[in-house]
Write a structure and sequence with these properties.
Helix content: over 70%
Largest sheet: none
Number of strands: 0
Distance between the termini: 215 Å
Order of helices and strands: HHHHHH
Shape: rod-shaped
């Protein structure tokens, strides 16, 4: 029972092969084309495929045109003006900063010079010279010279207080006065005309002081001689009276 279907299938295969051979003999061998062959006459039948549109060529990128260098654009001119303004502001700020730094350096240098100069005028501790009471004595001496010459001419009223004050300073504050004189001389050396006049006046003053001192010594010697002679005369009279 189970072998019957297999036998039937084997019987069908030769039958189908015979039918195919018979059909090939009846009909001629033709080539089936999806479309009409190239040598076939034009047929009114429409093709089964639509005509494809022609391939479009890929558009070429447009070359960038370089801007003309002969005539700059407004954007270029604006950028140039902004760049010039920035450079100008940078130069101005740099110049101002440099000048300010130089000014501060000069100011600090002058301050240090001034403080060191004032400190150099003070007398050393070993001299035992005090400025405060000595300065008051000098001021009182200058005021006394002004009082003495209040009814005199303008020349005496201008020179006598100064001379009396300077003299009192040399007596009361000799070290400080010497330091002040040296400082004044340093400033005077920068102006040759003032330095020469100062030296001339100083030479005349020293020479006059020497002459006054010599005359004073002569007067003191003459007065001592007169006192000695008078004492001897009195002693002689006393002896004679006895």
């Amino acid at each position: 029972m189970a072998a019957r279907p297999i036998l039937r299938q084997r019987a069908i295969i030769p039958t189908v092969a015979a039918a195919g051979a018979f059909a090939t003999l009846l009909y001629p061998h033709t080539i089936v084309h999806a479309e009409a062959p190239p040598d076939a006459p034009h047929s009114s039948k429409k093709p089964i495929y639509d005509d494809l549109p022609p391939l479009r060529s890929k558009p070429q990128p447009k070359a960038r045109t370089e801007p003309s260098t002969s005539s700059p654009t407004p954007t270029d001119r604006l950028a140039s003006q902004i760049r010039r303004a920035r450079l100008t502001l940078h130069d101005l700020s740099s110049t101002g900063e440099t000048r300010f730094n130089n000014f501060m350096s000069t100011l600090l240098t002058q301050e240090r010079t001034f403080t060191s100069t004032i400190a150099s005028l003070a007398p050393p501790p070993e001299s035992q010279e005090r400025i405060m009471p000595g300065a008051l004595y000098v001021l009182v001496a200058a005021m006394s010279g002004s009082i003495l010459t209040r009814n005199r001419n303008i020349m005496l009223r201008a020179t006598v207080p100064f001379a009396v004050g300077v003299g009192a300073a040399w007596i009361v504050l000799p070290v400080t006065t010497r330091n002040v004189a040296d400082l004044v001389w340093k400033f005077e050396e920068k102006v040759p005309l003032i330095a020469e006049n100062h030296m001339r006046i100083r030479g005349a003053t020293i020479q006059g002081w020497k002459e006054i001192k010599e005359r004073g010594d002569r007067v003191m010697g003459w007065s001592d001689e007169m006192v000695r002679e008078g004492r001897e005369a009195v002693e002689g009279w006393v002896r004679k009276g006895r």
